[in-house]
Amino acid sequence: MSPKFVDRKQKIKDIAQTALCLFSQRGYAATSVEQIAEAATIGKGTVYEYFKTKEDLLVAAVQEWVDQGEIQISAIVEGIDDPVVRLHSFVRRNMKLFNPENSNNLHANRFYIELLQQTFMEGGAFYNKHDLLKEFRSKIRIILVDILLDGISKGIFKPEIARDAEKYAINLMAYLNGIGQYALTTKESLEYKTLVEFHMKNFLTLILTDTEE
């Protein structure tokens, strides 16, 4: 009887998805490798065949989380011809992620806070992995840069922003993440929406051509 073929990439993805689910529900510190193995219906030793440490599992879980977000955003903006509408769709999706009134976000928000702790806490799993986090964020940023460049090509956004399109994208993402964290800590969903709308109005003033203002 020939040995069963195992798709290594798919196995890594499956374990990472399980780890993401448990880390989101219980937190990183409260989740053991044994619990991840049990939830994935494999042995603990099998987990260590694919991941050397628990930190490696967290990295893979974050990678899976970012990949899922990239797929969701791409699906939302796909087929929208107007770059302004596409930009607003991008922002609305981000707002849903942080909306404190959305009960479906409970686990996602918990995982996001967990990631922040593991990034800024000395000895955290991502404390010395800033380049890796930058690489993860770049996947979402590329989508935003493409929206800006498309708007420029269609004469809707100012051509002079082309050389700084990535900087505009980074600044918008930084604002959305920052105000999202504010919403999570204050639980002010209405104020959150108002603040984002205010920022977007000013952001569009900066990038729209005179004919579009």
Question: How would you concisely characterize the structure shown here?
Answer:
This protein has 213 residues and is mostly helical. The chain is built from nine helices and no strands. The chain has a single domain (58-207), classed as Orthogonal Bundle (Tetracycline Repressor, domain 2).
What summary fits the major beta sheet? none
The first-to-last residue Cα distance is: 70 Å
Rounded average pLDDT: 87
The oligomeric state is single chain
Approximate shape: elongated
**Into how many domains do the coordinates divide?**
1
Structural class: mainly alpha
Give the topology, please:
Elements: H1 8-26, H2 33-39, H3 44-50, H4 54-77, H5 83-98, H6 106-120, H7 130-153, H8 165-186, H9 189-207
Helix pairs in contact: 1-2, 1-4, 1-6, 4-7, 5-7, 5-8, 5-9, 7-8, 8-9
Structural description of this entry:
With 213 residues, the chain is mostly helical. The protein has a single domain, classed as Tetracycline Repressor, domain 2 (Orthogonal Bundle). The protein has 9 helices and no strands. It is elongated.
Supply the key terms.
213 residues, Tetracycline Repressor, domain 2, mainly alpha, 9 helices, 0% strand, single chain
